[in-house]
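ugh ok so i messed up the first submission bc i forgot one of the chains. this is the corrected input, ALL of the components this time, i swear. 606 residues overall. if the numbers dont match what u have on ur side tell me asap before i send this to the collaborators (the ones from the other lab, u know who)
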Amino acid sequence: MKKKLLAVLCATGLLTAALTGCGNNETQTTGTTEQTETTVVETQETEEDTQATEETETEDAANLSGTISLAGSTSMEKLCEAMSESFMEKYPGITVTVEYTGSGAGLESLASGSVDIGNSSRHLKDEELSGGAVENVVAIDGIAVIEDKENTVTDISAEDLAKIYTGEISNWSELGGKDEAIVVIGREAGSGTRDAFEELLEVADNCAYAQELDSTGAVLAKVASTPGAIGYVSLDVVDDSVIAISIDGIEPTEEKILAGNYLLSRPFVMATNGEISAQNDLVKTWFDYIKSENGKAVISQVGLIIPE
Amino acid sequence: MKKKAIIEKTAKIIFMICAVIAIFAVCSITLYMFMKGAPTFQKVGVSELLFGTKWAPTAKEPSYGILYIILSSVVGTFASVLIGVPIGLLTAVFLSEIAGKHLGSVVRGAVELLAAIPSVIYGLIGMMVLNPWMYQLEKSVFGSNSSHKFTGGANMLSAIIVLAIMILPTVISVSTSSLKAVPDNLRSASLALGATKMQTIFQVVIPAAKSGILTGVVLGIGRALGEAMAINMVAGGAVNIPLPFNSVRTLTTQIVSEMGYAQGLHRQVLFSVGLVLYIFIMIVNFILLKARKKGVGE
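and heres the new structure output, hopefully the right one now
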């Protein structure tokens, strides 16, 4: 009976800690640290209670406590969520908060000092760099343009690709292929892949899609099964069921993207004010974690390329 | 004696609580939809939202017109009812009036199975089988007409066909039971007056079962209007005028496909889309209520 009671108490304690933790995530971006610290202490205590065996491992981690705040690119949501989740598991004392306000807004928040890290899904502009921001590329996002297996056009110029997506070219014969209508497949509004594709190809808000699908898998399946179809997906999901088209003669491979030659790729930047070495311990720990094996695993797990 | 009274009372309270849960759920959902969906109408403008034809929520100058989306839902639903109801009604007539015991049970079993198939299966088959057929049809209709935007077969027509099949079980089962409820003396009287069996069915039995059949039709409309998964898989999902060979998006698929990454006003507008759908469903249910009352009155 006593055991049961204890278990219930423990569970309640954990739940409360979790709930308050969640609540804080939303409200504490303004920088009220007092509340956070109490939560952090609570969480630590429960951690110690329940995971006494793991204590040796997390001892180092438990010494660190505080908050890291990030703001910026919406496209980096998947990466940031996965990274912060995995990070906070290892460092239970640290709370990571991420706001998705857009690259420009994130860098502005960084410049004004309201966040530790500004997320940007593009290279920093000169005026941003001269303001003291330092560009730390944590991952690279690559997009592959795919077509069905029967298609004979395997290389395309960026210009023609843009024309396909804006509807100016509607038959593969115009590009030297078979007489087959082009079925233009894309993602739904709000998708990060669509944003990146349209932005990098400079066809934003101009695309005439025949189909708008709501997942990477759906695009892949549709393109594979529809003769004359063209679509775009994250580079990592491309498989044998489709052909990944070269753009301006450059195949979409990790090597080409790392070399910076492939058009449809963009860096995911976590910018800091000054070099990483000049940051506080928490931020340093964050970047160390990203560069660790665990961090790299997270990056590849969300389908991104690890920069050199 | 006392114990019995307590049990009686507790049971009553438990029943009451269960009933209240349903009412509470409906009320809170309604309240939530209006609270979440209504403010956006003001922000975007009622006419711009409902009668705008351009859906570009993430553009630099966003535009939130959902007219084509509403039209796609309406056209898709009515076209599928137009196809599904005659087939369903005639199947119901077959089941209740014509089929023998053995054949009847086979057909009934098939209909019940049809009702039990999850909508994602309909979508999958539609995507893998129906869409390629539609693409062949599309190619033969439009040929090398370069002004047509080829959709690869994911179009309004596919959606209508899938929906028509999906509403069949509802229409059939409700119509069958209402046809069966028609008293036998009506049939006997008609036959005795010299009417043939077909004349009896179409001029006596079906009119007598009218309100029940209507209930089936309205339920079918509700099902077609609310279906999301299967449509999402076969209809293409681009916002277009609901023409047979255009890729379309309905109210339901609009929410399903964009909720994942939508932010800010875009997200709020999706709640408004939900509200519009909710109002449509309420109207359908209101008609259903009327139809049932009328049935009872007769």
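quick check: Chain A has a mean pLDDT of 81. that seems consistent at least. Chain A is about 45% helix and 20% strand.
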